[in-house]
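Archive entry. Fields below.
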Amino acid sequence: MSSLQIRNVRKVWQGARGLTVEAIRDVSLEVSSGEFVAILGPSGCGKSTLLELCAGLEPVSGGAILIDSEKVAGPNPKAVMVFQEHSLFPWLNVESNVVFGLAMKKVRLNERWRRGREVLERVKLVKFAKHYPHQLSGGMKQRVAIARALVGSPEFILMDEPFAALDFQTRVLMQQFLLEVWAGFKSTILFVTHHIDEAVLLADRVVVMSAAPGRVLEEVKIDLPRPRSMTDPQFNAYRVRLTSHMEREVMRAAELE
Amino acid sequence: MARAAAAALIPWLILVALWELAAARGWMTTTLFPPPSSFIGFAIESDFRVGFGKEGMTIPVAIFASAFRVVAGLFLGFIAAVATGILVSMSRVASAAVLPIVRGLAPIAPIAWIPVGIIVFGIGNPTAVFVVFTGVYFILTLSTVAAVQSVDPRLVKTARTFGASRAQVWARVIFPAVLPQVFTMLRLNFFAAWMAVLAAEMVGLKNGVGMIVILGREMFNPNLIMLGICIIGITGYAVDALLLFVQRRILWWKAP
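PREDICTED_STRUCTURE:
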């Protein structure tokens, strides 16, 4: 049983000339195995920073992040990150992008290609294995990025607004795709977004963060059976509840600027 | 591809036709500006050989000599500059120590290095290659450093989240990411490098296509001068086409 614990985490960015910015203040959160947690907040609330801390890409300034009771001290194969568009390596084809992590760990070549092939089959991208990123649509690129995260069987997938750059139609399809992947691969997902509908549609639990410095304002359990529909009145009740929070925080963030 | 080449040829055909017309009608002095029919005829008549004795050479050999010099210099300059740029970018101390010097040497025209090359390497291919090399090396080193700084941080973060070590980030992400940008700079600096090779051939090396023009002047043979100028243009165009091919087919990717 794997777990991710964020304990009283604080992050301060050191800027030029001794300037400091407090991005996150005293955030605590627990994510357990198989859960789908969405982190919702206005732009600049430090939600992306929080993911980078979990991925071990940045050190925490205070508190601790534990994965399976072990302190995160650097990039960790148990928790990989998926970024917005443009994170595929443009000089590698789909297949080579997908097995990038295995190549970094110097996994044997035939094992590498076998696992790459397997994941591509499961996300229905085999036909595009030899394509290069610039030959793919935005939605396909993100499917490749997700496949690349899945190939190392991580326990946690940390997604930083992965669908923000996509058009509405593609985003709906990708949300569907992500739910299928999540059910199929049984990974735990921590998903950052500023879309309320996206959070309610996907997550078991929505964590609302405040404007800078980022703090956890509220945790809302989404108690709706899947597949969920955006036109369901109960869906709307969650939407209204989260919208009021978000509105207040967006206004506060605007005043801070 | 073929259509574009044909379209590029049409203005040239018109220019040559006008030139021939002007020569035939006596609108210009053909003794000073012989038309293509005259100097191409001259080349065929002299069996594609120019010069006498020690200075004699065949035209294909001259073309090959000049093209080899510029391509070898560009190739070595590109590799050395990418290596220097990346190594220097890895350390702040190295950047602070090396970059001011590179910045001071970059504006020196490649032609200015010709006497240095002749003194150090004597008269021969190494001098020509050296002149091209110095002509592109410093500017491409600066351009590599700039390209390293502009690599999308998301690519670096992605590599790190998949467990890439520091060395792997440099070799597997930053190195391929900067190549196309630096190669574009190489192509932009090709013309200056080509001119430097020709100048080196004219003042010291005594062979190659630059020498054809000088022979024409020494023997007061306008046919040879015009022939030399045309060969310089066509050879330069061909090498540029080769660079364009590398840019489009080999280092084709764009940084996101």
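CURATOR_NOTE: The helical segments of chain A are 47-54, 94-98, 100-104, 109-122, 138-150, 168-185, 196-202, 233-256.
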